[in-house]
Automatic annotation (TrEMBL):
Molecular function via GO: ATP binding; single-stranded DNA binding; single-stranded DNA helicase activity
Name this polypeptide is given: MCM family protein
CDD domains: MCM
Organism: Methanococcus maripaludis (strain C6 / ATCC BAA-1332)
Record-linked Pfam families: MCM (PF00493), MCM_lid (PF17855), MCM_OB (PF17207)
Alphabetic keyword roster: ATP-binding, DNA replication, DNA-binding, Nucleotide-binding
Length: 670
């Protein structure tokens, strides 16, 4: 190496540390990260080139210069750790694209690079040796050996004085926190999105523990050899610096874009227009489309109160529910999964034992869909095919997931909206059976949804004709024949502005930045709605009021307003009513009954409680452990409860787990 070149590089770095990292020195930071792109832009071309050629020596030089700069100001020696990140394009590009996980191969082995990936597996934190301390067993000479690759420790140092073997002193060696991540290359960074997913194991030193999210890792590919007899190697990625990457929608807007957003927001039907354009391939279902569009905008975050609305759509087959979910998953930050391929834990987070690069049967965290969709929307198809839905309760309400297993104790963020879709119990809706009796979702989970929509495929000649024409129009547009302005693959002009899917995504991102305050008039309207509903149905709770408030805020944000006005509140009430009328409206009483969502209407709850008490009393009076259904019916008649009501009540009590039927017609309390 040219000594003069090293001297010039060292001089530049020292000056850089004294100026750019002066605040770190003042605050006595012993761990810093150097932004190589910023250093390059300041004129450190030779420095960056040197670090690219000799990553190990380059980082050591950065640490040495930071220690010297620190000493010059503080007159105190420290043991500093310097990492590097944000590589300039001159290092981190292949042709006209940024290097990615798929580029980690023998040609990049040992070279500095930076890749992005989504965490699909994370081990517990372990302790790894960073510097090994050796002593000569003959003369007592000591030696410190840095460990660059933890998989290549199969060496035995020789004493520089007497040429005898040296022994490892574990207690005097230096250690660091160590973790392995498995990253998947994001789809949008694949050179060919049709290729199978690409993965890489990443080894991180000095880490506080990363268990979820999208990360950008600066590092060097290193080789590992599992079978020492065969000269074949695996590549892993040794991380130098790791930071999380925000996956939410882009939040930087030009003045021109903001002006455009404000112009189009003046259209009084902006919510209806954009919600239709979000799903132009689907005909009809305007309330559902509107609710989903508003869900993407979110309400106003206030303390621990969630700003996300949860929506479930229960539909007959063939109405386009899966298309809507898959389309929505294209919005940055959103994620899609089919529940028939997942468990409840698979949608939240799982802690399992697996063999990894750093050990056999290592406890690892596997983040689920709700964690991957943090800050976005988790789109869950075929929702009712999922087992053990109770694991979703914490994630949907508090928007966090606690993990305490296998030495891993952490809390993962799941701050996302949930959009679920499923078919009714028997595949299609039966008009002769109440809607809620055809939904097989546990009541505690169902109650977490702000909006519940049902879509029935009822034959209607004119409507079916319109749908058929629309399907043909979509097919023609995909083939480039007869493209129309209201389809995704072309833009539609609204107020002279071209609106397509990308525009809608940006509009949603900008609308999210708004934080409207509820006006007195809107507050009064929402409060009156809540009180009117409570008057006839005390089962309407503050949870429904909060849902209405969130939706009113979403309407105001969609219109780019700073205040939630009566129009927003009124539209929110209408959307809530559209949702409740199918699942909570009792035609016999003419009132809303939220207990229907819990699987039990008010008129069913009263006889069920009475039947339960009758069974308990009969068991106390009887020497038998089981009570015959005939005895229950006789007692129920005294309370004016019919035999049909008794049968229905016993069935629901069994479903709820309050009683069981060990023998046909024989019951007991559990």
């Amino acid at each position: 190496m040219d000594d003069k070149r090293i001297q010039n590089i060292r001089s530049f770095i020292l000056n850089y540390m004294k100026t750019v990292h002066f605040e770190d020195i003042r605050l006595e930071q012993q761990e810093i990260a150097v932004d190589l792109k910023y250093l390059y832009d300041l004129g450190g071309f030779d420095v960056v080139e040197f670090i690219e050629e000799f990553p190990k020596e380059g980082i050591e030089l950065l640490e040495e210069c930071y220690r010297d700069a620190y000493y010059d100001y503080k007159m105190n020696k420290i043991s500093a750790t310097v990492s590097i990140h944000n590589l300039p394009d001159i290092i981190n590009k292949k042709g006209n694209r940024i290097l990615a996980i798929e580029d980690i191969n023998c040609s990049t082995h040992g070279k500095l690079m930076e890749v992005e990936g989504v965490t699909v597996l994370a081990t517990k934190i372990k302790m790894a040796m960073k510097k090994a301390s050796y002593v000569c067993t003959a003369c007592g000479e000591k030696k410190i050996q840095s460990i660059e690759n933890p998989f290549e420790m199969n060496f035995e140092p020789i004493c520089p004085k007497c040429a005898q073997s040296m022994a490892l002193i574990e207690d005097e060696s230096e250690y660091t926190d160590f973790q392995e991540l498995k990253l998947q290359q994001p789809l949008e960074l694949m050179s060919n999105p049709e290729d199978p997913p690409k993965y890489i194991s990443v080894l991180l030193e000095n880490t506080p523990g990363i268990y979820n999210g999208r990360v950008k890792v600066t590092g060097i590919p290193v080789k590992t050899q599992k079978n020492k007899k065969i000269p074949l190697y695996d590549l892993v990625y040794k991380g130098i610096h790791c930071k999380t990457v925000d996956e939410k929608l882009e939040s930087d807007f030009t003045d021109e874009e903001i002006k455009t957003f404000r112009e189009i927001s003046e259209n009084p039907d902006i919510v209806e227009i954009l919600s239709e354009l979000l799903f132009p391939e689907i005909k009809g279902h305007s309330s559902v489309k509107k609710a989903i569009f508003l869900q993407q905008i979110k309400g106003v975050k206030k303390g621990n109160c969630r700003a996300d609305s949860h929506i479930i759509i229960i539909t007959d087959p063939g109405v386009g529910k899966s298309k809507m979910l898959r389309k929505l998953a294209l919005i940055p930050g959103n994620a899609y999964a089919s529940a028939n391929m997942s468990t409840g834990v698979g949608l939240t987070a799982a802690v399992v034992q697996e063999s990894t690069e750093i050990g056999e049967n290592t406890y690892v965290v596997k983040p689920g869909l709700l964690i991957r969709a943090n800050k976005g929307t988790a789109c869950i198809d075929e929702f009712t095919t999922m087992k053990k839905m109770d694991s979703l309760l914490e994630a949907m309400e508090s928007q966090t997931i606690h993990i305490n297993k296998g030495g891993i104790n952490t809390k993962l963020p799941a701050e996302c909206a949930v959009l679920s879709a499923c078919n009714p119990r028997w595949g299609r809706f039966d008009e002769n059976v109440p809607v809620m009796d055809q939904i097989t979702i546990p009541a505690p989970v169902l109650s977490r949804f702000d909006l519940i929509f049902t879509i029935k495929d009822t034959p209607d000649r004119e409507r079916d004709r319109e749908i058929a024409h629309h399907i043909v129009k979509v097919h023609r547009a995909y083939l480039g024949v007869g493209k129309t302005e209201d389809l995704t693959f072309s833009s539609r002009k609204i107020s002279g502005i071209d609106v397509d899917f990308q525009f809608i995504c940006k509009y949603i991102a900008y609308a999210r930045t708004k934080a409207p305050v509820v006006s007195d008039e809107a507050e009064e309207l929402l409060t009156d709605y809540y009180l009117d509903m409570r008057k006839g149905a005390p089962q309407i709770t503050a949870r429904q009021f909060e849902a209405a408030l969130r939706i009113a805020e979403q309407f105001a944000k969609a219109r780019l307003k700073d205040t939630v006005e009566t129009k927003d509140a009124d539209d929110a009430i209408k959307l809530m009513s559209d949702s409740l009328k199918e699942v909570a409206y009792d035609k016999e009483t003419g009132q809303y009954d939220i207990d229907r969502i819990m699987g039990l209407s008010k008129k069913d709850r009263i006889p069920m409680m009475a039947v339960y008490e009758i069974l308990k009393d009969l068991l106390e009076e009887s020497v038998s452990e089981l009570i015959d259904v005939g005895d229950i019916v006789e007692k129920a008649k005294e309370k004016n409860i019919s035999e049909e009501q008794v049968s229905a009540s016993l069935r629901k009590l069994i479903i709820n787990g309050d009683i069981d039927e060990p023998k046909v017609g024989k019951y007991r309390v559990i």
